[in-house]
Prior knowledge:
Mean pLDDT: 81
Oligomer: single chain
Structural class: alpha+beta
Distance between the termini: 111 Å
Radius of gyration: 35 Å
Largest sheet: 7 strands, mixed
Helix content: 10-25%
Number of helices: 4
Number of strands: 9
Order of helices and strands: EEEEEEEHHEEHH
Strand content: 25-35%
Number of domains: 2
Low-confidence stretches: 106-110
Amino acid sequence: MNARLDHRSPLVFDTRELGRRPGALKRLSRTVEAPRDLGNEVIGVPEGAPVVIELRQESVMDGVLVTGTARATVKGECVRCLEPLERELEADFQEMFAYPDADARTRPAESGDDAEDEEDTLSLEDDMFDLEPVLRDAVVLALPLQPVCQDDCPGLCSECGVRLADDPDHHHDAVDIRWAALQGLAGTDQDGEIDNDPRVGGVEPQEK
């Protein structure tokens, strides 16, 4: 059984002023504290940070159409150099919240795929709706998949991990492992070189 909506929650909105009159409109602005986990593992809105919501509620035949924009500051880290980053995010959303009796009036005998769609439909409860799931989906979709501190961020050195943007001339002398192996063999030959002169050791070659 679903828990009843708490009208004191900042993300719960009341639609009673619309009076179920098709075409009735209500606009409002509200600043709320970001709920937990509003983002992904790389970037998101910190819990408790302010989120400014501009909302428009429009009464239609079967429910209330909610359209709006959420603005907040998101924080995370650059996927290339792992430095902290911060930017402003604007996320648009639109969702239909159906009257509890709307489906019974319009689709009394639907099943199969239609039944699954019905389960996904958000409904009003006591003429109120919870915006949190809509807000969460909108923010996550608006977040960059690969956030970077700057478009041309060079990232980290693959050998030592230094941040390349702080040291543009940073480099390591590359050694070709094939030449290194040959140099090692050459050194071994020099150290253990054997004189191939048949007279080595004072032995004269015998004449045939």
